[in-house]
Design brief:
two-stranded antiparallel ribbon; disordered N terminus; 218 residues; two-stranded antiparallel sheet; 13 helices
């Protein structure tokens, strides 16, 4: 007869544990992540995409890739509203929110009503993983083109105008400039009109609901 430790280590327990993790990733956790990402401002969304695409470790990237492939039932590399609804159902969410299409559209970076791989990664990074200091430093350096340790409005605009959102209609320059100005105003604690690393990290660690402004949401 197997000992309790041996029984708990049996492959069937491992399989069930893996199924529980998949259900969590496809169910309420997925919905919560998409809602949270929907509420982020442009700079935070861009930062999460940079971290997801460039700086995630292989183990975490693999687990997210597996979840994406499980959702992407037709294998076209994008998640449709129907595929996300099916994933939520598999994860135990029987009643999808009525605004699910709006949530998908807010995560969509290509303007076609679906969520591509990079956007999915950005939206589903666990908070404790995405907000580690070294990852934020690396992402900050992507924005900090001149290496002076501060982000100017022009440096932020240059990254936000990059091809990561290719295919989605761009905001008019005046609208983008206004949003960037508001982001800087919210994050800039010392009043120099720029965002330094400490201010950047504080902004990234702030939840979407820490202030009432919604004008910065893409």
């Amino acid at each position: 007869r197997a000992t309790p430790d041996q029984a708990l280590g049996h492959k069937w327990f491992s399989i069930l544990e893996g199924q529980d993790r998949k259900s969590s990733a496809l169910g309420p956790e997925l919905l919560d992540n998409l809602k949270a990402y929907q509420s982020q401002n442009l700079l935070k969304k861009a930062t999460l995409q940079i971290i997801a695409w460039r700086f995630l470790d292989n183990d975490r990237l693999q687990s997210l890739s597996d979840a994406f492939r499980q959702l992407d039932t037709n294998g076209d590399g994008s998640l449709s509203l129907e595929e996300i609804q099916e994933g939520l159902l598999q994860g135990g969410v029987e009643d999808a929110p009525t605004d699910l299409q709006q949530i998908v559209d807010s995560v969509d970076t290509q303007g076609n009503g679906t969520i591509n791989y990079t956007a999915f990664l950005a939206a589903t990074i666990e908070r404790r993983t995405s907000l580690l200091g070294d990852l934020l430093q690396s992402a900050f350096n992507v924005f900090d083109k001149n290496g002076d340790g501060k982000l100017s409005a022009e440096e932020i605009r240059e990254v936000l105008d990059s091809p990561q959102d290719e295919g989605k209609p761009a905001s008019p320059p005046s609208v983008l400039a206004e949003r960037i100005a508001e982001i800087i105003a919210q994050a800039d604690r010392d009043g120099d009109g720029m965002i330094d690393l400490d201010e950047f990290c504080r902004m990234m660690r702030r939840t979407p609901f820490d202030n009432s402004s919604t004008s910065l949401v893409a």
